[in-house]
Amino acid sequence: xxxxxxxxxxxxxxxxxxxxxxxxxxxxxxxxxxxxxxxxxxxxxxxxxxxxxxxxxxxxxxxxxxxxxxxxxxxxxxxxxxxxxxxxxxxxxxxxxxxxxxxxxxxxxxxxxxxxxxxxxxxxxxxxxxxxxxxxxxxxxxxxxxxxxxxxxxxxxxxxxxxxxxxxxxxxxxxxxxxxxxxxxxxxxxxxxxxxxxxxxxxxxxxxxxxxxxxxxxxxx
Length: 221
Fold this sequence. Notes:
It comes from Micromonospora aurantiaca. The protein is mostly helical. Helices cover 54% and strands 10% of the residues. The protein has helices at residues 7-13, 18-33, 49-61, 80-88, 96-115, 132-139, 143-155, 183-197, 202-220, and strands at residues 38-39, 64-68, 73-78, 159-162, 171-174. Strands 1-3-2 form a 3-stranded antiparallel β-sheet. It has a two-stranded antiparallel ribbon with strand order 4-5. A hairpin with an 8-residue loop joins strand 4 (159-162) and strand 5 (171-174). Helix 5 (96-115) crosses helix 8.
């Protein structure tokens, strides 16, 4: 990388050795641009405390954070503060139809499976596909619009298209981009799923009450 063309990198990495800088730049590129989480063996910057610290600084300077997916894999995601600011500003990259399709896949493939104890509480990958028939029946969306939205979500990595071994209909499961969510973002999404899937459940009522109390305190300030 040409250092003269990237003052942001220079400001964070200037005191590193050439080898450390190379490792940090490579890790940053892998974390930001890989479709799937990256194994720690490919992220040499994580093996050196100084390099890891600079990598995390570099991510923070661009509104991102390091996200550990499991014991071996990492990715990057939006910093929670930045995400909140974008949301408050009205930033929404998905259309209404795309959000509806994504929500249905998360409900069918994740929320229901969790309620039946087939998935762990904080798991966002799922082997249980949501079929196109499920989406069309639950959403009452026009088939063309729903299929177009699903295709865009697959292209964005928010959904993955799967087929079963019998080459039957298959369906959609959550995609790898959801693994970029921070723990706090995953908790918020989990609450949204509860509110969407079971709005009359006592847990949904508790979530609404807590959010109302938080909003009231913020208004007083």
